[in-house]
Amino acid sequence: MGESATPVKAVHEAASSSAPPPPPTSAQIPPRPASKPVGELYRIRPWHTVIVLTLALLLDLPFLIDRLALSPYTSHTTGGVLVTGASTGIGRDSAITLATKEPGLIVYAGVRNLRDAKAITALHLPNLLPVTLDVTKDNSVQAARRTILKDLASRGPEPDNPLPFVGLVNNAGVTGMAPLEHHALPEVEKIFAVNVFGLLRVTQAFLPEIRKHQGRIINISSVLGALTVSSFAAYSASKHAMESLSDGLRRELRPFGVSVSVIQPGFVASPIHAKAETAAPSPSFPASTDYPHLSTPAKRAHLVRCRAHAASPRSTSAAVADALLQPFPRTRYPVAAVDRVPAVVFTLAAAILPDRVMDSWLEA
């Protein structure tokens, strides 16, 4: 026992010798450097300005080239314009905007039923007239054409000199939401019947007048006409087809002085998005078993946020008015936003980012 006392004592002495030094006094603590004011931390520096100006130039470069390379298109302030799908949302607001912005235009609002026609008439705009139109039926389109041309003839300065038909805004559209494996073909066919074949049917009916008077065509597409997201693939495919038809029309009609523009809205306050949210896959939906990642609470919350932050239809109507009335209309107008991200960000990203990168971003 006497032999073990010496090591224990040594351990205690060693421990006491290695004890931490006492904390320094306030006099020994060096002063903290003064923090920079907030304005200094977030001050705009010259290279920030260079980056912003460079990005702005890149965004506007295609339009600048267009303006330098092209002659101005004929701008009409009198004549007839048809807006399809004008019962609600984008179509209704576009029709009202055109009628109020240019009193010389006679704007025909395409509606499906008498109730919607009465709602248009109740606005008491003398140059905004409802016309019954179902874009999926040949007889309805031809009847609307006869009605419009007859009305324009009655408004001409002379019996044999009718007002010209100068503009077509193809807005009528429907949507649908489901993964492609479970998307019922009749619903997919309906989407294409309205969004693609309906657009082409109306355009073919009015093209002779548009060519004759150097009018304009404006097609309401979507940001999903530039990219595709899961569950909306069928709707997106119809908008991609619309974009392709628009490109073809623009090139075929260029020698006639006819401008064709595409509007690419993000989320705009409209019943079409309310219907999409209502159709979102629920836990009882068959696709939820096979595709659980498409019906998560996060996906539903994203749709709710998109609707909550949806832009007013005025954002789209302003683009429609520009495409119809300005001498240098753009070929594409990305407008509004998706969950507060501007639509133009999505269209640019789709054009320059690799597919796999877009996949990761859109499906995060």
TrEMBL record:
Pfam families: adh_short. Gene3D superfamilies: NAD(P)-binding Rossmann-like Domain. Residues 1-34 are annotated as: Disordered. It comes from the Eukaryota. Signal peptide: none annotated. InterPro entries: KR_dom, NAD(P)-bd_dom_sf, Sc_DH/Rdtase_CS, SDR_fam. GO terms for molecular function: oxidoreductase activity. SMART domains: PKS_KR. Residues 19-34 have a biased composition (Pro residues). Residues 79-271 form the Ketoreductase domain. One of its GO terms (biological process) is steroid metabolic process. Belongs to the short-chain dehydrogenases/reductases (SDR) family. This is Ketoreductase domain-containing protein.
